Amino acid sequence: MNYVEVHGSRIRYHATGPADGPAVVLLHGIGRSLEDWLPQHDRLTEHRVISLDMPGFGLSQRLPARTTLTCLAEGVWATLDALGVTDPVHLMGNSLGGAVAMQMLVDDPARVTTLTLVNSAGFGKEVTFALRMLAIPFLGRPLLGRIDPRVAKRVERSLFADRALVTQERIAMAVRIGRQPDFAAVYLEIARALGGFRGIAPRWRAELLNRVVRNPRPTLILWGDRDLILPSVHLSAARAALPHAQSHLFPDTGHMPQLERPDEFARLVKPLLALTAEPPRTHSPL
Amino acid sequence: MTRLGHFRFAGHTAVVTGAASGIGEQLAYQLGELGSHLVLVDRDEARLKTVADRVRASHPGLTVDSIVADLADRAQVEGVATKVLADHPAIGLLVNNAGIALGGRFDQVTVEEFETVMNVNFRAPMLLTHALLPALTAAPGSHLVNVSSLFGLIAPAGQSAYAASKFALRGLSQALHTELAENGVGVTTVHPGGIRTRIAEGAIVGTHVPTSEIEPNRKLFDALLTYPPEKAARQIIEAVAKRKPRLLIALSAKAPDLLARLFPVGHARVMQFLTTTSVKIGARR
């Protein structure tokens, strides 16, 4: 893993594949890291694949500004600038990363070729009780303050349908991330910016989706049918909001299909990554 | 019926007859969204291709097969079953949805016309279910849907063949509900009323129906068939997910209107019967 300096903060990233050609940018979910995308680096070998710990997450330092969706989107664009990626990219985002990808698209449409949204935030208010509790005053910080191996194991278990994926390695990484100095602060800032105890707030979702529809890109929406974090019923809402998108629902799969169904995932996204940055003239799905 | 647990659509194969239009077409789109691989059956090749292509374009990760067959023909039904069994040794869902209508009083239709309705609406589901049982019971938790009708509950004048076929399908379906529970297969009998589908367009008109009666009848049906098929499909999918044994669609909204038109004199008594039935059904839940 490497680090690059962005607005004075140290951002951790992982880049594989040929240095030329359009890049594929992979964005993780809330409180997570680029480790959530490692199996795809091994599979999408024909492309320059870049994953990163978004500012304030994983092992990246936070940005000075308060963590919001716009701030994260800007942070990722700035990271790509620092890496010399100026051509249009393929964006893929899991969970919160999906919402960040959509925000990046509407903030700078000319730089985005395709969009892959994986169990993405933005399509419904329902979200795991664990995240809603964080919105309760004085409760959020203590909850996030002690990510010991026991807590980390419980969190990891909620992410996968198959418990075999809850490895010691993943638990150790989650504990390490939880010990980063700004982990709790950044987690709470973004959680409270996007929702509250009653779930994910409707206003920013409606505004964001309206703008995404005005900048249609070839879009693939993927979901696991046993997601306990963002329920798969959001997929219907996603298809209604983005009628130009393709979709696939994975059986017996949790919140992170890119880890739990890595081969099928790669097979499904490859045709999308073969598309070039031609501004779409029609609304037909691909 | 929570014993079986909720039906999970993703990753299973669903076989849907009459999939080129109406409820079957909408089921195809919604099942695709839910991650089911599909085998779509219809006699209308062009429309079936359009539907299958649309599902494929939206869901590149799914296998979508289409089989063109006229379910009035016994050999063709058997051909469908053979093909499905060869490609899909295990299926998760079978939806016997295809149906045709026949206009005319009993003395205005020929025996051949009557038999065609029975063959499509009753014999085909019976043959297909029988032949596909090994694939349905291959893995526990599968589900069977038989689309009967409002006329599987009441039999108005002028609908002898259609009502007979739909009563028969209801009888088969209800018996199978109990029998297949032992195999861990759920069964839902659906009774739609007044769904906006192409069934009236494709209806056979009895040979001896006077020409003067054809057009008014068609218009009557057009006015009655107003409930959107996508909503009907949504309700069927929810009923399957929850393993409901019986689903009535659009009856409360449509039945009074429909009955008033069909039984200008005696509809009050039929309404009373229907109400009693629905109360009984409600009490049994």
From TrEMBL, chain A:
The lineage of its organism: Bacteria, Bacillati, Actinomycetota, Actinomycetes, Micromonosporales. Residues 22-262 form the AB hydrolase-1 domain. Gene3D superfamilies: alpha/beta hydrolase (3.40.50.1820). It comes from Paractinoplanes atraurantiacus. InterPro entries: AB_hydrolase_1, AB_hydrolase_fold. This is Pimeloyl-ACP methyl ester carboxylesterase. One of its GO terms (molecular function) is catalytic activity. It holds the Pfam family Abhydrolase_1.
Automatic annotation (TrEMBL), chain B:
The keyword Kinase does not apply. Residues 12-198 form the Ketoreductase domain. One of its GO terms (cellular component) is membrane. One of its GO terms (molecular function) is oxidoreductase activity. InterPro entries: KR_dom (IPR057326), NAD(P)-bd_dom_sf (IPR036291), Sc_DH/Rdtase_CS (IPR020904), SDR_fam (IPR002347). Signal peptide: none annotated. Keywords: Oxidoreductase. The keyword Oxidoreductase applies. SMART domains: PKS_KR (SM00822). Pfam families: adh_short. Belongs to the short-chain dehydrogenases/reductases (SDR) family. This is Short-chain dehydrogenase.
